Amino acid sequence: MPLKITNRQARHLLIDAHGLAKPPTGPLDTLAIIKAMGFVQLDTIRTVSRAHHHILWSRNQNYREPILWELLAENHGLFEHFTHDASILPMELYPVWQRQFKRMERRILASKRWNIAKPLHADIKARIRNEGPLSTHDFNSKNTGPKHMWERPPHKRALEYLWNIGELTTSHRENFTKFYDLSERVIPNFNEDCAMTDGQQLAWLCQQALHRLSIATPAQLQDFWGVANAADIKDWLKTADSVPVSIETAEGSWTQAYAAPDIEARLSRLEPPSARMRILNPFDPLIRNRKRLHRIFGFDYRIEIFVPAAQRKWGYYVYPLLQSGRIVGRIEVKADRKAAVLNVLKLWPETSVTWSPARQQKLEAELQRLARFVGARTVVWA
């Protein structure tokens, strides 16, 4: 019989696995945070702070925005590539990331949308070799022929192709603009052959995903790194070092999943998450998988940035609120950095939650901390 995991245990396991169970205090080690998570997703939107900075700050509130780029540019302990989306990953994953480089190459070459301009590749690499890291702004090729929506100029397609297949890598970012360099000049031991076969790389990545998640369905394992298809995951699970489990959902039904091999030890030392209020970014790894969020936490959530304003149920960029192992509400906040103000536009407590004065005080304390993070001196409620 599969090991049964109650809904409360499942919520606490996931919160702990994602580094949100304890207060976000103590000495800051940004690289250790990213290694524990596996990666941190990048995103351009900045209503308060961009997703990658907010996610790191949520795990240690001594974090400040320049630190991630300093680590990427100076220490080479990190590299940038695609998981499910653009992400920063620990350098120790680079040898097994060869599988992803090859997957991305096959996907791009099979897509007519990319229209790869291969003659540009040698010229681009030669310029970077001679001039150092360059951004898309350093090139000026133009499309010819009929215009198509979302079509990028040849140099952008060529840079992204070479980056996707691992021949170029991100050397650093300036004001979020990516600078490309030759991978052999950035990646330590770049020319060493990976000692693992493709199958071994996949198995290692799957085991690492399960280790970081504690509990997961096959679809959630597939979603974690974004390096495999459903058939790959199914084959791996046949011989994987994992424990079949049955997880209670927020509605009281049960769903089948898999757990890390030490799941019983993890359950035995599991403690209730902190009662501190946490304002989570919409791309935080705990809540990014919306199906899991609804199934385990009973929280129906979507980001409405692409929804016309008149059709939004909540707001443009709404942050879930985590406290004591539950999602207790959502809030829309926006920073006015020039005025040094954090504006609270609207608060929606969950209907199942009693919004007590004590809970409001915890929220206001967290808003003050978030304001300090982005340099705001005042929190203003609409």
Short summary:
With 382 residues, the chain is α+β, with helices and mostly antiparallel strands.
Characteristic key phrases:
382 residues; alpha+beta; four-stranded mixed sheet; globular
Task: Give the % helix.
Answer: 25-40%
Shape: globular
Number of helices: 14
Compressed to H and E, one letter per element, the order equals EHHEHHEEHHHEEHHEHHEEHEHEEEHE
Assembly status: single chain
Report the sheet with the most strands, covering strand number, pairing sense and barrel closure.
5 strands, mixed
**Rg, please?**
22 Å
Task: Extract low-pLDDT stretches.
Answer: none
* Biggest sheet strand line-up: 10-11-12-13-14
- Cα distance spanning the termini: 53 Å
Strand content: 15-25%
What's the overall average pLDDT, rounded?
94
Number of strands: 14
Structural class by secondary-structure content: alpha+beta
